[in-house]
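Hi R.,

Here's the chain you asked about this morning:
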Amino acid sequence: MALQQEIAELIPKLRSLRIPVIAAVNGPATGGGLALVCGADLRIASQSAKFGVAFIRIGLSACDIGVSWILPRLVGAARAQELMLTGRIFDAEEAERIGLVTQVVPDNELLDSALQLARQVAANSPFGVWMTKEVMWSNLETGSQRAAIDLENRTQILSSFTEDMGEAVVAFLGKRAPKFRNR
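And here is the predicted structure, written out as tokens:
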């Protein structure tokens, strides 16, 4: 049980990082690998990637490392139930179609595509990226739209006091890229 609990903490640890985690899936992502994909903030796959909730196929529960909580939020409850109860392997195109990944690229372009995605994220204020990640994950657990909006409102006000927000305005008016300092 101690080992299982330690492994299960991987996803909350990924979620608590201030920077986004990008899963660039090249090959099979089954069982714990699928859980890590689900726990990432952004997910892309190569054409040869394969996915599956494998533990049910070896006599265990498909509910492991948070998959039973996050997979339904990514692909919908009905699709998650089917994938978790059958344990079937599915390809990258299906993963994109059902919303598990947002992009499928040729195998030899996966790393470049992941780095391009990372650069797009890094072009934004580090504080804004951190707050966006934190609030999005938190609002998956929020019980109402009102509570979600209240958290968003507080985060916007907090963000407006950063030096980076001021730099973004000056850069926009000066028609140049901002130089964020994470302050």
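One quick note: Strands lie at 22-25, 28-30, 42-46, 50-52, 90-91, 103-105.

Cheers,
M.
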